[in-house]
Design brief:
Blueprint lengths: L1 H14 L20 E2 L2 E10 L4 E5 L2 E6 L3 E8 L10 E6 L9 E6 L10 E4 L18
Parallel strand pairs: 2-8
Antiparallel strand pairs: 1-2, 2-5, 3-4, 3-6, 6-7
Length: 140
Amino acid sequence: MRITWFAILVFVVLGCRTRPDMPAKPLSWYDPALGKRDNCWGYRVGVEVSDPGCRIELNGEHITTLTNTVGEIILWGHSDGKFRGKQVVRIVANPVKPGQNQQSKNFFNFNERERIPRNIYFDLNLETVKPTEKLDVRVR
């Protein structure tokens, strides 16, 4: 009888453990098919733009050109869904038509708490914001 209770206890304890090759929390955008690279996990991030044919860059490097208005890119991060290390991640969408402006999303990971987004939207038809008044902020 003791062996039966011991076997049940072992199955309960070991059955509740997560596999070491899987992230600690189930993340809906994590793709196990991408595997690991430099102890990082691959995350699929949905990208939506206002016009098709937009070039997407990641930290100055061309990643993809979206043929439709919806696509995806792959970002690498820790198993908890956060960016890796103290870095700045900049995702840029370049304009397609004249009169459109370049849009960018910046993620500053200096406190190592910035989470990888699930979706990013770029509206290339936004106008450049110009200040309405000039402020003098010199400190004496």
